[in-house]
Every structure is written in structure tokens, then in C-alpha cells.
Amino acid sequence: MRALTVIPHQPGSLQVQEVEDPVVGLNELLVEGISLGICGTDREIASGLYGWAPPGKQQLILGHESLGRVKAAPKDSGFAEGDIIVGIVRRPDPVPCGACARGEFDMCRNGLYVERGIKEVDGYGSTGWTVLADYAVKLDPSLGEVGVLMEPTTVVAKAWDQIDNIDKRAWFDPTRVLVTGAGPIGLLAAMIGKLKGLDVHVLDRATSGVKPRLVEELGATYHTGSVADAAKAVNPDIVIEATGAPAVVVQAMQLDIPCEIVCLTGVSSPGSSSPVDVGALNRNMVLGNGVVFGSVNANRHHYEQAAAALAKADKKWLSGLITRRLPLSRALEAFDITVPHDDIKVVIDLQK
Ligand code: BGC
């Protein structure tokens, strides 16, 4: 079969090549890959900054934003030929830690978890793949091509789930959310904010193009400029940071709004420092009961929440997030950051 492979920590090693067909293990589904979404993590792995090959191997099959069609399923697995599915990304650590033992592997406490296409297990970027039935999630076939947005939606479903849990620490009746960054994560976070009935504001540096249009079509308000200015105009109860850009992250953390919750979702590269008035930051957070927290990955519960959100969302708006489709043979173009593209989500068609 054909696969998108990379040698982690070796820049320039990304390629599409013939690899051995997957061997179907016990309780596994055999799946035909339909499409694969590409995100910042994939680009980071391709550029040599992140990622781990399976033990004993040099190469990793890339890809964790999956969409596939079941070709064969074990009896009583709950799946049948033709089902449209996505594969869950993370697997619990082998110890397991308390969180993994309870199915909350997204909150793993010892870091020994593995992730399809990212950490020590081959991903979903191939014409065929297998997945344990317990780590597959059936999708409503009416979702069609936007089913590939399921995984990034699970990541924001988890972030919102955590925000909802933090909300419960005291009376809090949030009405306004500010999302920084109008990439796939920011826009999907904004979409869930709208589904929750909130007044949603999205800040991005783009002044024209697809981002302001999608925010407007969502019924949210688009802002450009600094986080401080947007926050002044919006007075948000919740901030979801989805750029991972250090300058934006620092501004989001320094906002002085009582009882505000700031959720960080963007993975930034280490190595950038900027002067911060830690005294003021701490003072504001303590005197304002502020919460700044990070959120990553998603467990099965969040996959269910994401499926429910996608079912309620406007399919036409969702398909607008997919701004470029490439056949697998041209997958490397999705990683070429030297070509300016007004992209939100690039998707690889695995059968082309
Ligand atoms: C994926 C998560 C994963 C994280 C860190 C993200 O791009 O969506 O599932 O946990 O990268 O590896």
C-alpha cells in the first residue's frame, strides 16, 4: 500500500512510498483510508522537531486526523463493512497511570502514552490501516467529507469540557468568549461556542480572505489587532488561545479580567522569551481568581461530544474549513510553507 512516511527528527525525510500492507490483529478493523487532515503537529514532525518512530523502526507513518471506511470487522465488534469511522489518536500508557486506567488517557500522568502518527505507533496516513475496534468511532455517513474534521473537533470539545468543569468551581455564567487564532482549532472552538449560545469573538491577524468570512458566516465577530484591545472591546469571560504564538499567549495570560478562564490549546516551539511582569501577572490572577490552563488531545467521551457538535453544525460552513484537497501523490505540497496559501485545513485524498 502507499503511505506518507517520515523519519522523525530527520528534516526532509517526508515521502510517499510503498510500504507493507497492515496485518489485521485481534479485535482490529481493517480500514480503507478515505482522507487525512494535516495540522501543525504533522508539519512539526515533518520539519524534524517532534515525533517518535515505533520501537525498533526508523520510520513513522504520519497522520492522526483520520477518516476511513471499514473493509472488514470482527463479529460482535459493533462495526460492519462500509461503516465510516475515525480512529482515536492516543492509547493509554502501559502502567497504567490512574487517569489512563480510567479511560482518561488524554490526561496521562506519566507521559508513557503513545499516539497514532505522532508517538511510537504508525498513523492513519496510508491507503489502508487497522485500528482496534475499541479505538474506532463510527460517524454519521451524512457528514461526508467533513468527517475528517472530527479529530480537531475532539481537541476543542475536550478544551470546552475542561472549561465547563472549571466553571463549576463557583457561580459563573459565561456569556462572551474570545478565541485567538482563526485556524482550524480556533474556528472549531468558536463553532462550539456558538452551539453553546455564547457571544463569540475571534481575533486573528488576517485582515481579509477566508478567515473573516468564515467568522462572519458563523455569526461571530471578527477582530484584528492586539489581544488587549480585543479583550477591552469584548470583556470575555473565557479566552481560548489557539495560535500558540508566544506573543499572543503572553498577552492572553496577562489580561486582567476577574474570574476569567484562559485555555491554551496552541503548541508552541520552545526558545522564545519575552519580558513579563510576573508580579503583575500573579497579582491579577490571585486577586481575580484567574485560571490559565493547557489542554491537549481527547478521550472517547470527547469524541462523542465532537460527533454531537458536528451533527448540529452547518455542514456547508464546515466544508468551507477545508480549503485545499490534494491527492496522496502530492501530499508533500501540504507541508510546503514557502508557498503562501490562504489555507484553513488541507486534506489529503488517500485513494488518489
Ligand atoms: C493532536 C493531539 C496530540 C497532540 C500532541 C495534536 O496535534 O491533535 O491528539 O495529543 O498533537 O502530540
TrEMBL record:
It holds the Pfam family ADH_N. Keywords: Metal-binding, Oxidoreductase, Zinc. CDD domains: glucose_DH. Residues 145-350 form the Glucose dehydrogenase C-terminal domain. InterPro entries: ADH-like_N, Glu_dehyd_C, GroES-like_sf, NAD(P)-bd_dom_sf. GO terms for molecular function: metal ion binding; oxidoreductase activity. Its cofactor is Zn(2+). Residues 27-126 form the Alcohol dehydrogenase-like N-terminal domain. Belongs to the zinc-containing alcohol dehydrogenase family. This is Threonine dehydrogenase. It comes from Nocardia camponoti.
